[in-house]
Amino acid sequence: MPSNNSHCNSTFSPLCSSVCLREMERSKKKVLLFYCVEAEELARKVAAQSNLIQLQSINWRSFADGFPNLFIKNAHDIRGQHVAFLGSFSSPSVIFEQLSVIYALPMLFCASFSVVLPFFPTGSFERIEEEGDVATAFTLARMLSNTPISRGGPTSLVIYDIHALQERFYFGDSILPVFESGIPLLKERLQQLPESDKIVVAFPDDGAWKRFHKLLDHFPMIICNKVREGDKRIVRIKEGNPAGCHVVIVDDLVQSGGTLIECQKVLAAQGAAKVSAYVTHGVFPNKSWERFVHKNDNVSGKAFTHFWISDSCPLTVEAISGKAPFEVLSLAKSISDALQI
């Protein structure tokens, strides 16, 4: 005889499924989402993913001397609510005003507080190789770690594809870093491509392989590395064979793009049918993205069939809009899910 507790049997499975879905919906929280000016488009995409996310406004004003004159609208309505802030630390000049808001929001008696910082901009400056080096990744982590504790406890800090996982230990106990990845977006996009069975994933160095190979282990892989020849550092293929394949180079971020270009040349020389690239963070200082744009009068500009980035760097997303080979894979659904953690 079935136990009274075994109500999810085959006879009642439709009813059980309906009850379970209702319970799951009740367990989700309504989130008031604030955002910086740069991240407005991404914030709207996040809010469109769920009716439980409601956008909130901040007046991002400045005094005559350039320092912030900020105002959080409807501050009394925050009391007892789950609150989140979507930031974009694209330059040192905007960090101060956003930190001011991040420090203020949990002090308005919210039930919990989350910060979503898709790109941790100082992540590649985490090591001290000689006396005098300044690890600015540690500095920014300490600044975020000083976020006041809300009524619900420590702040949750959501970051995508941080450059070095050991940076989780840079944060203090008053903040809980949540490390997510944009790689699932890439996997979904690759499955939509024709001849997806001929895709090979390439990593520009051992560091990228260590970060991402477990998330892409169902693809054949190529590992590149840099070797010194005289005064030059040249990219070589360390492992794998690109011949006849669509090779997708994967890394966490791109700055000037020089390494990606050198990898593409080597892969093409070794017989790759196509070469594409994916980076979660398209930083591209000084418009370095222009090196990759397809131009009718420049055959070498068509070296990359696709170049996928996420929308973690809003200024880049705006700059490359409509320019082949770039395509933006949005983090909106992933951020929406992360706000329910």
* Average pLDDT rating: 91
Radius of gyration: 23 Å
DSSP E strands, number:
15
Provide the helix percentage. 25-40%
Number of helices: 9
Q: Which structural class matches the secondary elements?
A: alpha/beta
* Spans of at least 5 consecutive residues with low confidence: none
How would a crystallographer describe the biggest sheet?
7 strands, mixed
Report the span from N to C terminus. 39 Å
Strand proportion, as a percent range, falls in 25-35%
Shape: globular
The helix/strand series, from N terminus to C terminus, equals HEHEEEEHEHEEHEHEEEHEEHEH
Give me the side-by-side strand order of the main sheet.
11-10-9-12-13-14-15
Could you please describe the fold and organization of this structure?
The chain has 341 residues and is an alpha/beta fold. 26% of the residues lie in helices and 26% in strands. It is built from 9 helices and 15 strands. The protein has helices spanning 13-27, 40-48, 92-104, 136-145, 183-191, 206-212, 258-269, 314-320, 332-338; strands at residues 31-35, 53-55, 58-62, 68-72, 82-86, 112-116, 155-160, 175-180, 199-203, 221-229, 232-239, 246-254, 274-282, 307-310, 326-329. Strands 11-10-9-12-13-14-15 form a 7-stranded mixed sheet, sandwiched between helices. A 6-stranded parallel sheet has the order 2-1-5-6-7-8, with helices on one face. β9, α6 and β10 (221-229) form a beta-alpha-beta unit. α2 packs across α9 (332-338). It starts with 12 loop residues before the first helix and ends with a helix. The model has no long low-confidence stretch (mean pLDDT 91).
